[in-house]
Design brief:
Blueprint lengths: L10 H29 L4 H15 L3 H12 L1 H21 L4 H28 L9 H30 L1 H21 L12 H7 L2 H24 L6 H6 L4 E2 L1 E3 L2 E2 L7 H23 L6 H27 L4 E2 H29 L5 H25 L1 E3 L4 E3 L5 E3 L11 E4 L5 E3 L7 E2 L2 E9 L2 E6 L8 E3 L8 E4 L4 H24 L11
Parallel strand pairs: 1-4
Antiparallel strand pairs: 2-3, 5-14, 6-7, 7-12, 8-11, 8-14, 9-10, 9-13, 11-12
Helix pairs in contact: 1-2, 1-5, 1-6, 1-7, 2-5, 2-14, 3-4, 3-5, 3-14, 4-5, 4-7, 5-14, 6-7, 6-11, 9-12, 9-13, 9-14, 9-15, 11-13, 12-13, 12-15, 13-14
Length: about 525
């Protein structure tokens, strides 16, 4: 009989597989917005919509993976099969031509592959335990989560460097190679995994039974609040926080001889996870337990409040940048400290909570519901960024040493406000530090003179020098309804409101744990 205080034999292979796979996912995700804006001339809102929709898909397809796993194939076959599709998507990004079509195709296969394996890999952790050693589950999930952040730390650190020095082929190619390694490692551990066979038709009976439906509906209420958490957290991971860091007004020199690229700032999240997990596990939670009972839902509720406060910090940073004032990247690092604490409280807890609440034959399905909350959170972010774009029909740009835009009647803008152009304006930008390119993507308002505005570039805040004749259509120019810090305040206040309501949900929810019986 296996020692009840010893980790199951399959756990190291699962953790190594997850580390390499997350290296791939987070490495590509870290540079995605920068790649779309720098190489494909996307505007910031459009880049955020594309990246959010990629994440939406990546966390929507777990529902398919869960059904395939629980009903037909079991976890091992599902993970291996979807991993091959995942590798194909990464290879398309690395080897295909630089174009929106190639991007969409590669990200589509990636989302399908990573989505298919997501509910199976995490539940496969819990399946290795029985009632004899279930006291080790929390520790195993902590190791599992730390492996995610160990892999993401190095990929987020290096992929921006590879993109800048060698281009997208190398920056996407190395993560693709790591995904192939992840698939191989999982294959090598095939004889060491405890296997829960697929349930077949019994799965349908379990899910649609009275108790099954009651559990699903109860968890969906919890996951609705968790979805809002993900709408905020994912913006710190390669999206709006990274785009904020692209401005030269954010001083990226941290001292000690360390200067970061904008996309590298995300690396501190993985570093803080590695530091905070043991602090919370062995320090915060035991201390908290001296005063009151520490339940998973109480942890999640506190995490929602903490996450909201991180966006208030980022909102203050944005107000400084919009006003033309320099701000140290250390302030954004402080925001990462806060949002990482929220992640430990919400994400790790919800992962463990989801596994324990699910009956044995429903574990992948319930995990897919949890991952669906991530999908819906990103769908919400995409919707906000889509709906906040306001077209400026009738706007006309005049080329020259300074580029001026005549606004439609009744439109007012302020200094520092963002303005987007599509790729069909007919004007060419001549930057002082690079090749000529179409006037496309996101620019800033440098000066307002009545119904005219002068442009400056978003990164260096220098005047935009253009040539050519304006040929833009009625939807060529747009701006954002949420101006500057208003964007981050919107999400902060939304999260605070949800956190208050969640207190009532946590008070009425009744937990019931399910683990695999011994033998």
């Amino acid at each position: 009989m296996e020692d009840s205080n010893k980790m199951p034999r399959g756990i190291p292979f699962i953790i190594a597989n997850e580390c390499a796979e997350r290296f791939c996912y987070y490495g590509i995700n870290a540079i995605l917005s920068v790649y779309m804006i720098g190489f494909l001339q996307f505007g910031q809102a459009r880049a955020t919509v594309w990246q959010s929709m990629f994440k939406f898909s990546a966390y929507f397809f777990p529902m398919l993976g869960a059904i395939v796993s629980d009903v037909f194939w079991g976890k091992y076959r599902t993970i291996i099969t979807f991993s091959m599709v995942y590798v194909l998507g990464c290879a398309i990004l690395a080897l295909g031509p630089t174009s929106p079509f190639n991007l969409a195709l590669g990200l589509g296969f990636m989302a399908f592959g990573t989505g298919g394996i997501k509910p199976c890999v995490s539940t496969n952790v819990g399946d290795q335990f029985t009632s004899r050693n279930q006291h080790l589950i929390e520790r195993a999930f902590n190791y599992f989560y730390m492996s995610i952040n160990f892999g993401s730390f190095f990929s987020i650190l290096m992929c921006p460097v590879w993109l800048e020095k060698y281009g997208p082929r190398v920056a996407f190619g190395i993560p693709a190679l790591m995904m192939a390694v992840a698939t191989l490692v999982f294959y090598l551990g095939r004889h060491r995994f405890a296997v829960v066979p697929p349930a077949g038709r019994q799965w349908l009976r379990d899910v649609f039974s009275r108790s099954g439906m009651k559990l699903v509906l109860s968890l969906l209420v919890v996951y609705a609040f968790v979805a809002v958490f993900w709408a905020l957290w994912d913006q710190s991971n390669g999206q709006t926080w990274t785009l904020q860091a692209t401005s030269d007004l954010m001083d990226k020199n941290l001292g000690f001889g360390i200067t970061l690229l904008p996309a590298q700032i995300q690396v501190v999240n993985g570093l803080f996870i590695l530091i905070m997990v043991p602090i919370f596990t062995f320090g915060v939670y035991p201390l908290w337990a001296r005063f009151t009972k520490v339940t998973p839902l109480r942890r999640i509720g506190l995490g929602l409040f903490v996450t909201a406060s991180s966006f208030l910090i980022v909102s203050w940073i944005e107000s400084r940048i919009q006003s033309g004032l320099r701000v140290s990247m250390w302030w954004q690092i402080l925001a990462y400290v806060v949002v990482t604490a929220g992640e430990v409280l919400v994400s790790i807890t919800a992962l463990e909570f989801s596994y324990k609440q699910a009956p044995l034959r429903m574990k992948s399905f319930i995990m897919a519901l949890f991952l669906l909350s991530i999908s819906l959170g990103n769908l919400g972010t995409a919707a906000v960024n889509k709906l906040m774009v306001r077209d400026l029909p009738g706007a006309v740009a005049a080329s020259g040493a300074q580029t001026w835009v005549t606004l439609p009647p009744g439109v007012t803008m302020i200094t520092g406000q963002k303005i987007d152009f599509d790729e069909h304006t007919g004007l060419t930008v001549h930057p002082s530090d690079g090749p000529a390119a179409p006037l496309a993507g996101t620019y800033l308002v440098a000066e307002v003179q009545g119904g005219r505005i002068r442009l400056m570039d978003n990164q260096h805040r220098k005047s935009v020098v253009t040539s050519g004749e304006w040929r833009g259509g009625p939807e060529s120019v747009s701006t954002y309804r949420l101006v500057g810090p208003e964007y981050f305040n919107f999400f902060a206040y939304l999260m605070l409101a949800c956190a208050v309501v969640f207190i009532g949900v946590a008070m009425v929810y009744r937990e019931q744990d399910h683990v695999r019986p011994d033998g």
